[in-house]
Amino acid sequence: MDKQLDTGDLDLTVLRELTALRSFAPSRGFSGRVMAQVRLPQPAAVVLFRRAGAWVMQPRRAVTLATAYAASFVIALRLAVPWLETHAATLKLGAAWVGTQLGALFNTVAMSAADWAVQSGVAHAVREAASSGIVVPALATLTIGYAVGGYGFYALLKTPGRSDALARS
Amino acid sequence: MPTAKDLRTLGDREVVALAKAGKEAAYRELLSRYERPVFSLIYRMVRDRALAEDLAQETFIKVLNALDSYRPEFKFSSWIFKIANNAAIDQLRKRELDTLSLDGAPGARTAEEVEATALQAVDRTESPLAELEARELGGEIEQAIGKLRPEYRTAILLRHVEGRAYEEIAEVMDLPLGTVKTYIHRARLELREYLAHLRT
């Protein structure tokens, strides 16, 4: 009876000790070492592009593809040149027509802009500013202000570790 | 995009789905969830810290690089423990071949018999690491677990240390449920025997 009780106690002790066993942690940097060897999935387009690149870059395939490209270029030229020669007059006429249309459009836009500048008084204001000598100092101030602002922005984003915040983001 | 805090509230399946979608934080979450249980299981199986770390690293790399082949109808924990256990068992088999057997003759039943028949084929000089391990795994119960057969050790560790269900242990060990129950029962009996000297 005593022995049975003892055995029961021992069972309980064993179970209690088992459940109380501590868990062990791997050394520091373990997760970093694992993550360094894990390949994170990439977007399908990138994967396809890389696979296509790798496929093409195989020496034999690259030579085959370059040859095919050169051949198709020669064939295309061989077909295109006679066609261009045959239709030269038509093409010339078409190009002249497109040129005339584009020129007319440019003239219309330029005339409208000039008309707007005169009507709105912008032209008058510019003429007055130029005659009063304010343009040069204003442009100089703007340039210096832009340079100072640019440098200030750069200094603001620069981290103590001498790395660029923009570059890190 | 869920933050690390959000990820902690999600179940394994959801975290795995996010990892499959390429979220690095999800990979880190899986790693932080399982690094201790997996490492502890392997360490208690192979009883060598450096080796256990290598095997745990191997396990995680294998699992995280093969997430695409993970089938959500199974528990993620079963999958990772299965790979970890297989790695540990393979290592023990390899070691057994290299050093004959350190566990004593197959017929050895009691702790004394095991002790008497165990081959001391490995280097017994105590390195600082070995001393550290001896201190870490020094408890009577740890020593008793170390004397169990590897299958019993896996079963008892998963059941009582990791708190896994019998069904999950059966999945991890690729064994019928009844066999797992038998292993755990026998492991407990053996532990009781090894710890008999503690009886008052």
SS-derived structural category of chain A: mainly alpha
Order of helices and strands of chain A: HHHHHHHH
- Taken from the alpha-carbon principal axes, the silhouette of chain A is flat
Number of strands of chain B: 0
| Number of self-contained structural domains of chain B | 2
The CATH topology of the largest domain in chain B corresponds to: Rna Polymerase Sigma Factor, Chain: A
Helicity range of the residues of chain B?
over 70%
Low-confidence stretches of chain A: 1-5, 161-169
Mean pLDDT of chain A: 84
- Rg of chain B over CA atoms, rounded to whole Å, is 19 Å
Query: In percent terms, what proportion of residues of chain B is strand?
Result: under 5%
* Distance linking N and C termini of chain B: 58 Å
Task: Give the largest interface pair and sizes.
Answer: A-B, 29 and 41 residues
Structure description:
The complex is a heterodimer of chains A (169) and B (200). With 169 residues, chain A is mainly alpha-helical. Chain A has 8 helices and no strands. The longest helix of chain A has 33 residues. The two termini of chain A are 73 Å apart. The N terminus and C terminus of chain A are likely disordered. Chain B has 2 domains: 99 residues, Orthogonal Bundle (Rna Polymerase Sigma Factor, Chain: A); 64 residues, Orthogonal Bundle (Arc Repressor Mutant, subunit A), CATH 1.10.10. Chain B is elongated. Classes of the chains: A mainly alpha (169), B mainly alpha (200).
A few lines on this structure:
Chain A has 169 residues and is mainly α. Chain A is 81% helix and 0% strand.
Q: Which descriptors would you attach to this protein?
A:
heterodimer, A: 169 residues, mainly alpha, 8 helices, flat, disordered N terminus, B: 200 residues, Rna Polymerase Sigma Factor, Chain: A, 11 helices
Give the helices and strands, then pairings.
The complex is a heterodimer of chains A (169) and B (200).
Chain A: H1 2-19, H2 30-36, H3 44-56, H4 59-86, H5 88-120, H6 122-132, H7 135-157, H8 165-168
Chain B: H1 4-9, H2 12-20, H3 24-46, H4 49-65, H5 76-99, H6 111-117, H7 128-136, H8 140-147, H9 150-161, H10 166-173, H11 177-194
